[in-house]
Write a structure and sequence with these properties.
Length: about 130
C-alpha cells in the first residue's frame, strides 16, 4: 500500500471522527474495505500524534488536540490528492468507462478510481497514469 493511500485513509478517518463522537474499528474497516488490524495500526499512528483516543475498540478525537493539529494533518495531503478525491466523488456509482485527459492530477485520479467496483476501463492519454 502506498504512503499516499495510508495518508488519505488517516485523513478520512479524522474527518469521520469530526462528524461522530466515536467510531468502532469495525465501522472503519467496512468503510475502507480493510482489515480491523489495518484500522488499529492506522489509529495507533493517529493516537501517537495525539489526535485520537482509543478505548475498547472505539476511536474518538482527542479534545486536547485542537483544530491546528487537525489542520496540519490535512496539509499532509497534496493538492493533486485533494483534487482527485473531489473528482472521484463526482463519478456516478454505475460508471463503467472513465476517460481521463493528461495533467498533473491524472495519476492520482487514476490511482483512486482503479479500485471502484463498477469501473471496467480507464482510457487516458497520460502514459504515467497507466502504471
Amino acid at each position: 500500500m502506498t504512503q499516499n493511500k495510508i495518508k488519505r485513509r488517516l485523513y478520512l478517518m479524522l474527518e469521520m471522527l469530526k462528524e461522530q463522537t466515536s467510531i468502532k474499528v469495525s465501522t472503519f474497516a467496512n468503510e475502507f474495505n480493510v482489515t480491523p488490524k489495518t484500522v488499529r495500526n492506522d489509529l495507533k499512528i493517529l493516537e501517537e500524534k495525539g489526535l485520537v483516543i482509543m478505548t475498547f475498540g472505539l476511536a474518538s478525537l482527542n479534545p486536547s488536540a485542537g483544530k491546528k493539529a487537525l489542520a496540519k494533518e490535512r496539509q499532509t495531503l497534496t493538492t493533486d490528492e485533494l483534487i482527485a478525491e473531489k473528482a472521484v466523488e463526482l463519478i456516478p456509482e454505475n460508471a463503467r468507462y472513465i476517460g481521463l485527459d493528461c495533467g498533473s492530477s491524472v495519476v492520482e485520479v487514476a490511482n483512486q478510481i482503479i479500485n471502484l467496483p463498477s469501473v471496467k476501463t480507464i482510457v487516458t492519454s497520460s502514459v504515467p497514469a497507466i502504471s
